[in-house]
Amino acid sequence: MERKVALTGIKPTGLPHIGNYFGMYKPAIGLARNYDTRYFIADYHALNSMRDPKKIRELTYEVAATWLAMGLNPDKSILYKQSAVGGTFELTIFLMAFTSKGLMNRAHSYKAKVAENIELGRDLDDGVNMGLFTYPVLMAADILQFDSDVVPVGKDQAQHLEMAVDIAQTINHNYGKELLKVPAALIRESTGLVIGLDGRKMSKSYNNTIPLFLPEKKLRKLLMKIVTNSQTVDEPKNPDKCNIFALYKLFTDKEQQAEMRKKYKAGGMGWGSAKQELFEILNETIAPIRQRYENLINNKDYIDEVLRNGAERASEIVYKKLSFLRKEIGLG
Ligand code: TRP
């Protein structure tokens, strides 16, 4: 039986922290067990707001190296850069013809920009380029070109995904047949799962993150900053009200957690040694990923090769889809 297709779109932003690792990377890579998985770096989407060529290139390598270091297998999955598959942009033009301007007017990312302009007393269209305005159409093309079955996205992208569904349905309805597979969203709940150094959700905007690729010494130093209460070494402690233990749980099994619970309850363990234990276990998990990342980022030729190969395989699928569509709509 043919496997279903899962597509993951990746914005080239900075390096991951452990919240991203558990919230996004691990589940997205896990999809490869049951799906035909495709991952791409949305560099043309990034261009709407990122104009430094050096920066885009750098971030693209970083993000590719990160996914590969996390265990994305480029032989089993396809990893490519959006800009390298020209067919996506032809499909975008086709989709444009069926996308009402009204639909785009309602897109959150565009509306947020307009709202900001209103607040600052600027012209409504200030800083709004057509890339931003039509962002959901390109996103729909990313998805529909592969007949994707599922698309894992954060909650912030749920509306964009609904727009892809809307566009596909409009086209299918117009031609009276299923020219395009209607995709389903796999919405990632914002995982309150991973807390940051201060006990709030781990997030760059709270400045409480633990970057995944921090060198060992810096990692240890950072973990020593985890916020605790002021109990003394001797006092018995409550693991369920402790930021250290909350992080510890992510990296350990039930037995290790039970052991650690005992140490908390018995008293005699200071926060310093609890943090040290967390560091050791965390470092043990991260070290191989960090090492792979270091190797990859220093081997750009390899990354180029993976991305080139990915783009070729993606293009083949996309061009097949396009030639089918061209015939169906009377252009081919
Ligand atoms: N818009 C997505 C984000 O900001 C990235 C993205 C672009 C995407 N195209 C996609 C995600 C297609 C899923 C499918 O995170």
Distance between the termini: 31 Å
Structural class comes to mainly alpha
Q: Give the H and E element order.
A: EHEHHEHHHHHEHEHHHHH
Secondary structure tally, helices? 14
| Oligomeric state of the chains present here | single chain
The amount of beta strand, in percent, is 5-15%
The mean pLDDT is: 95
> How much helical structure, as a percent, in the residues?
40-55%
Largest beta-sheet characterization: 3 strands, parallel
Cofactors and ligands present? Answer: tryptophan
Rg is: 23 Å
Question: What's the overall geometry?
Answer: elongated
**Physical arrangement of strands within the biggest beta sheet:** 1-2-3
- Runs with pLDDT <50, length 5+? none
Number of strands: 5
Describe what you observe in this structure.
The protein is mostly helical. It contains 14 helices and 5 strands. It has helices at 18-30, 43-47, 53-69, 87-96, 101-105, 108-119, 130-133, 135-144, 158-175, 216-223, 243-250, 254-266, 271-297, 300-329; strands spanning 4-10, 35-41, 78-81, 150-154, 184-188. The protein has a 3-stranded parallel sheet with strand order 1-2-3. Helix 3 (53-69) packs across helix 13 and helix 11 packs across helix 13. It is elongated. It binds tryptophan. The site of tryptophan has 12 residues, from strand 1, helix 8 and strand 4.
